[in-house]
Amino acid sequence: MSKILITSALPYINGVKHLGNLAGSMLPADVYARAMRLLGHEVLYICATDEHGTPAELAAQVEGEETAAYCNTMHEAQKSAGDKFKLSYDYFGRSSSLNNHKLTQHFANILEERGLIEERVSQQVYSNADGRFLPDRYVEGICPNCGFEKARGDQCDSCGKLLDPIDLIEPYSAVSGSKDVEIRDTNHLYLKQSSLSGDLLDWVNKAEGWPHLATSIAHKWLAEGLRDRSITRDLKWGIPVLNADGSAREGFEGKVFYVWFDAPIAYIAATQDWAEENGKDWKSWWRTDAGAEDTKYVQFMGKDNVAFHTLSFPTTILGSGEPWKLVDCLKAFNWVTWYGGKFSTSQKRGVFMDQALDIAPSDYWRWHLIANAPESSDTAFTWEEFQLSVNSDLANVLGNFVNRITKYACGKFEGKVPKGGKKTAAEEWLLKELNQRIPLLISFYEKREFRKAMSETRAIWAAGNEYLTQAAPWTHYKTDINQAAMGVRVGLNLVSLFGILAQPIIPDAASKILDAMNIPENNRSWNFGSSEVITKLIDALPFGHEINSPNVLFAKIEDNDVEIWAEKYKGND
RNA sequence: GGUGGGGUAGCUCAGCUGGUUAGAGCGCAGGACUCAUAAUCCUGAGGUCGUGAGUUCAAGUCUCACUCUCACUACCA
């Protein structure tokens, strides 16, 4: 039993997230959190909406709302989508919370005291028509390299060349289209992460259990040499830049902290919010001087987030000189792509969390996305693969197993766990399988190897079907009802076991199975410590214990459905 | 352009520090069974491991070059 702190990368506030976001951070974090809870660990799973930055302001403007009001609405929408996907956050907070304001300002002040922040002047495009500074990618114009007319200020989408907004010919604001733009000086705070690169390198070198993807990205940035990063922006919506005494900082009246400075700090602030709302202690999770030295901290994120979590956020933590908890295991994922291309909100390509649940129940998505998690490379989502996962794994292998044996028990044994019969080679074989596969399954969960865990789960389900073929209670029933009882009894115990093992992945179906089997809530945890325990699993239900059939657990996806969805979500390109 | 991930059976992917006939699931072919959502179980056919060199007694596994693909490239997040 240990304490495990889990965070998933904060979903940006700007709209309900697509399946790629779900599959690369929130969902695996949830599956891991659920598995660790079942193993008896003390788990705290924290997430929050990342609410600051230019896109939030602009999205609110489009909706004709105040930014804060827009964020309220979108936070609720994302929270609701997460609930419907059965994401078991202990707390789903907001980076705009008061605690995050205070904590972000605290970090900025202490970093400045320690000489890790300094003020510098830079040049930035200002749009007179919009009355705002524009981030590089919100400035568009003609590419000086290839002549493409809609090149962005950071990069040309046509020739791929990296640009500076100053280079653009006839630049205009991507927000309003106005050509009334100019370069202005603006002063900002810079985080001197370069001065900590030695410490960061030592820390990354000590990392254990990180995917290759995570360490290699960190090493790449460190090898190139860290540049100091600006941590403030010319925006209204965000965390104000204040002096240590809380007064406004001169020259920073119209500025706020950069989202990437305050967003990771929100992991901590959201824990504070959780603690305040629930009468809990947050320090024992985050302060190594207050109990967190025993906490194992695991972060989940897509590969785009790795640099921020291995470099800039650790700079904040290490630079503070305060005893904050650093991440122990950083689980990074590649992307889920939409038929090999990018998900795109503007082109309506891909499926978003809210739409997904109109198409199929959350369990279907959870299984498919985790069984095909983009762990070692990008993974293409296709409707055909989705259909295959659901029909083959969930409906045929698991669903049909549960259905065939529970129906049979209800029909021939009055829905009661029968006694009688003796162990045969079939039971021996089954026990050997379980003794080998269950510990392996647990170890895959502990190592956060999701594809392997799912493949092992499936193999255990398949072993149930094979057992029934070997035991063939329907054959014995004609000549030796006691031996038929043996097969049915073991089969029913397997149904319970499968329900118990399926809980982290497909919580709804697992509940249905366990409810039908009349397994009490407090008897559903994972306790597979020894081979004796595993041996007892196939004879755990008492004789005469009443069960029901949950009937059809997973409706199959028809070819016709696939055609309709493919047409509806094909995108506009 | 630079850097990183990936390129292994028709498809999706395993293959740790190099070591006997390269694995799994799906799909396909044949067979078995009939309790079950025309489900399940068994057997089988499929691969010169992106290309070309090199190191080695031995390379999918190490080195180099090339190539394809995806991503990142610091003010989108």
Q: What can you tell me about this protein's structure?
A:
With 573 residues, the protein is an alpha/beta fold. It is 47% helix and 14% strand. It contains 19 helices and 16 strands. Strands 3-2-1-13-14 form a five-stranded parallel beta sheet, with helices on both faces. It has a four-stranded antiparallel beta sheet with strand order 5-4-9-10. The protein has a three-stranded antiparallel beta sheet with strand order 7-6-8, with no helix packed on it. Helix 9 (306-320) links the parallel strand 13 and strand 14 (329-333). Helix 5 (197-206) runs antiparallel to helix 6 (212-224) and helix 16 (481-502) packs antiparallel against helix 17. The protein is elongated and about 90 Å long. The mean pLDDT is 92.
Give a nutshell description of this structure.
47% of the residues lie in helices and 14% in strands. With 573 residues, the chain is of the alpha/beta class.
Give me some keywords for this one:
single chain; 573 residues; alpha/beta; five-stranded parallel sheet; four-stranded antiparallel sheet; 19 helices; elongated; RNA-binding
